[in-house]
Amino acid sequence: MLPPKALSSLHKSASWLFAVPAALYTLQNRLVFEALHFISPPEYQLLNNMKLFTTSLVFRVVMKRQLRVFQWLALLLLGLGMALATTPKPGSTTQEDTRHDVWIGSAIMFAVAWCSAVAGVMNEWLIKSSSSVLEANVWLYLFGALITLASLLGSETAAEGYLAGFDSSMLPWSVVLCNAVLGQSIAFLFRYADSIVKLYAVCAAMALTAILSSIFLSYSLDFHTLGGYLVTFLSMCLYYLPPDVLFSSDTDFFHGLTHTRKTQ
After folding, report:
1. Would you say which domain of life the source belongs to (predicted)?
2. Which pLDDT tens digit goes with each residue over 34-75?
């Protein structure tokens, strides 16, 4: 909860703008659960990176932040890394219905990518324009809760009870808790960083998801998957390294490393 002083200082004039990303986030979350009916968790995390391209375009237009040519190349390289990581394994698509399910999941994730891009960049702009991250979260989650409640009224869930399924296991509550912590973390990330940083963070989550799935869901990590992760790491270096480091010679680069160690 916010302290009384913070509650009294909330700005209500432009608060209605938070209804737009709140509605898009609600739609996105609904589509995510629909997509998980057709694709596995690693496939979901990998396809979720389609928002790399949509977010980059929306970020460039809305935030009007120019990117260097090699940064665009880094983003394309990140797309190549995802393509390598999502290369189908031999024998994994032997049945036509399996391919059909993957295409349905991919189509849903394409819609998720655009919802996430518009909602994320607009939310970043609103958070940076707000007096505090807490105030921005108050309006975003308030509108999100209202929109979600309105979507539940009259549905089958309303007849069964809004907490149906939550009384049989702690797993649903764990999912809610993880998403709540994730939402707070992303809000501060938007405040002090940007949407591109979030995309690269998703790539790190992609690798972690694949590792956990290989442990608990019998998901095998092959050469293409590991190669894709390596390419995404190279993409991150290309995007964030300073231009003078990228265009320096190998001698200057190693001399800089040696000089840095001596100064430490």
Report:
1. Eukaryota
2. 888 888 776 776 677 788 889 889 998 888 888 888 889 998
